[in-house]
Amino acid sequence: VSVLYWRWRSPMQCHTLVIGGGIVGLAVAARLSRHGATVLVERHGTLLHETSGRNSGVVHAGIYYPDETLKTALCLAGATRIWDLHREGRVTAHHCGKWIVATDDAEVPALDAIHRRMMSRGIPSREVPLAEVATTEPLLRAVKVIESPRTGIVDAASLAAAYTADLEANDGLVALQTQVLGAEHLAGGTVRVHLDDGDSKTHIDAAAVVNCAGLSAHRVAALLQHDTVLQRVPPLHLWGGRYASCVGKAPVRRLVYPVPLPSLQGLGSHATIDLGGAVRFGPDAFYIGRASASADGPATVDPEECSYDIAATPGGESGFLDEMHEGVRRFLPSLPRERLVAGYMGIRPKLSGPTDGFKDFAIEREGNVVHCFGIESPGLTSSAGIADHVASLLF
Ligand SMILES: Cc1cc2nc3c(=O)[nH]c(=O)nc-3n(C[C@H](O)[C@H](O)[C@H](O)COP(=O)(O)OP(=O)(O)OC[C@H]3O[C@@H](n4cnc5c(N)ncnc54)[C@H](O)[C@@H]3O)c2cc1C
């Protein structure tokens, strides 16, 4: 990713300041740079350092979430943009397709419901004949398979590079190692954002600010003194998602998902592939804790102190691999446990705790600031859709 390093000079001004150099912040900065001078600040020394660098890279087709939600609408819009960028040769992606699999008769009604939803949304789909399943994915056990040919995978770094290029083409800037410390709201609506660039403390005056701080979005809202917004949106809950890499010959050639869990806290043990065809299983979903205060009490975990070490997670490495193998055996019964090794993990910034149902993305405007809360999956796919939505709230 080409990044312009910029030494800060005070006093500085910009039209829009975007907080967070994940995929959503980059998409938003690229989009808003059409309206005026845009600066993106990221506290780490690299882009995609947090959740945007720890996911499956799947370009979802907008299948799973309820109608008339931001997750569905922005996923559909964002996926269209990613495939357009792919056609233009600006991002690396692969239309590998996804098979959603019922492994026994009890799962067929849920799979049929998913298929009906795909058809009602105009999402391309087909039932794969079992003879074709046996010849193209011989290791797979399934009683019924629905294909989503529009689902695929994308290299998040190439998508970030495309957004960064669009930002820079409009004279926008990315400032790394620059952390937001707080803000003042000046007369006339200008927001003065206080920053630490590692060497010195400074500030920048912005006509508009967008909080794309991912796991820290609730914290950044508090730093921007927007406690009223925090009272409107649900608290932040952290859910870990661990992957197991599959060593040896790839057992499948496409994305394979079992019928998802009713809670949608995770999509079940599924197989994803990377652009080289290597297979990994996961992510699973385990609850870490509440990361912002709520009526139930104060935060129980700090997103900035969380470990990404699978050995330190519930069950440790071998417990996790045993559990993942149990799930994978549902659809790949002959795959030995020894083929699974611990991979990496990511953390989902969810707005739902263990006893809550579905919660949508919460994208809220307060004054001249837009906050993006709960940008979990399908946030990578939705990034360009989120950017258009933020633009519609501001301009
Ligand atoms: C395990 C897992 C698998 C997933 N798989 C998929 C998938 O296959 N497809 C899909 O569409 N989505 C997927 N997602 C969701 C997707 O990864 C996220 O929705 C997306 O990456 C969120 O991007 P973001 O820019 O909002 O957040 P982040 O990537 O977390 O970026 C936020 C940035 O803000 C910065 N920041 C925070 N506070 C400050 C501050 N005070 N000052 C300056 N900078 C700050 C952070 O350093 C960070 O870099 C997955 C998520 C997980 C956890």
From TrEMBL:
<keyword id="KW-0285">Flavoprotein</keyword>
<keyword id="KW-0560">Oxidoreductase</keyword>
<keyword id="KW-0274">FAD</keyword>
<dbReference type="Pfam" id="PF01266">
    <property type="entry name" value="DAO"/>
</dbReference>
<comment type="similarity">
    <text>Belongs to the L2HGDH family.</text>
</comment>
<protein>
    <recommendedName>
        <fullName>L-2-hydroxyglutarate dehydrogenase, mitochondrial</fullName>
        <ecNumber>1.1.99.2</ecNumber>
    </recommendedName>
</protein>
<dbReference type="InterPro" id="IPR006076">
    <property type="entry name" value="FAD-dep_OxRdtase"/>
</dbReference>
<dbReference type="InterPro" id="IPR036188">
    <property type="entry name" value="FAD/NAD-bd_sf"/>
</dbReference>
<dbReference type="GO" id="GO:0047545">
    <property type="term" value="F:(S)-2-hydroxyglutarate dehydrogenase activity"/>
</dbReference>
<feature type="domain" description="FAD dependent oxidoreductase">
    <location>
        <begin position="17"/>
        <end position="393"/>
    </location>
</feature>
